[in-house]
């Protein structure tokens, strides 16, 4: 562009210096030539820049799509090539971090899986021993009473000691159930993380599996004086793995029951929209403190405000993993003292 303007100025000066008659026409001609030259150079320049940018964009798009072996050519000088060089450096750093994270995650998965499998066998044995102990305690008492009655004596077995032993056995069984639940949830999360689970998806009626969830908690709700209400169009269907979705919704219902008092109401609602199906589990319990909302899906997270002393902090992370494996999203809305709503959205 500078060359074109310089040439035009030089020619104009020459015509003026030579005092050539009718110099306006040659000057007009050369000005048109200069304009054409500038436009041509601009077109070539921006066309070249456009090609370079398109190549860089395609490389970045491939990286976002999952390809890690990308490099933007930056063998020239200029601000644009400096930018490309920085992008290449960023890609290298991200790849290194991703590889490190992958190795750490793989190690953690393997460790959790190994520990979980190692715990399953002794837990099964302990449950058997606990059952035998409970049965033997009952048999001992019955035997003592029968022997006393046969000898014509008044049966004077210490029922207080029996009650104490049975209480210890019950607490022992309760703690073993907690450990077993922890092991099972760890195994499930590990399998989901590792992509070892192949979802067997089919069109399922949402009302059907919501009813199954309610039925599975029927005994507990009757004992605790609580209620589970279902609300939604019975014709709504969802493409999913029914067993895993039941697991996810059951975890949310259990969480709601844990945080509601007597007379509490848990609602399982569902709606179908044009592009997605929404399932909501809502309760009128104690709610979640705003300080905890950001952390509730972290594994083993326990709120300092929670009154639930039995939870192990894996139910909500497992639910989130199941929902995301189905390509869905999970949201939470809670007001302390009023209740909590978990909203699951699945694409249709």
Please, could you describe this protein's structure?
This protein is α+β, with helices and mostly antiparallel strands. The protein has 8 helices and 7 strands; from the N terminus they run H-H-H-H-E-H-H-E-E-H-E-E-H-E-E. It has a 5-stranded mixed β-sheet, with helices on one face. A two-stranded antiparallel ribbon has the order 1-3. Strand 4 and strand 5 form a beta hairpin. Helix 1 runs antiparallel to helix 2 and helix 7 runs antiparallel to helix 8. It is elongated, with a radius of gyration of 37 Å.
Euclidean distance between termini CA atoms: 57 Å
The percent range for strand residues is 5-15%
Alpha-carbon Rg, integer:
37 Å
Low-confidence parts, pLDDT < 50 over ≥5 residues? Answer: none
Write down the oligomeric state.
single chain
Task: State the major sheet.
Answer: 5 strands, mixed
> What's the arrangement of strands in the largest beta sheet?
2-4-5-7-6
Portion in helices = 55-70%
**Global morphology:** elongated
Q: Mean of residue pLDDT?
A: 78
Class by alpha and beta content: alpha+beta
Produce a short descriptive summary:
It contains eight helices and seven strands. It has 348 residues and is α+β, with helices and mostly antiparallel strands.
Features:
7 strands; alpha+beta; 348 residues; 8 helices
Question: In terms of topology, how is this protein built?
Answer:
Layout: H1 2-18, H2 24-65, H3 79-150, H4 159-194, E1 202-205, H5 206-216, H6 218-224, E2 227-232, E3 237-240, H7 242-258, E4 265-272, E5 276-283, H8 315-325, E6 329-335, E7 339-347
Parallel strand pairs: 2-4
Antiparallel strand pairs: 1-3, 4-5, 5-7, 6-7
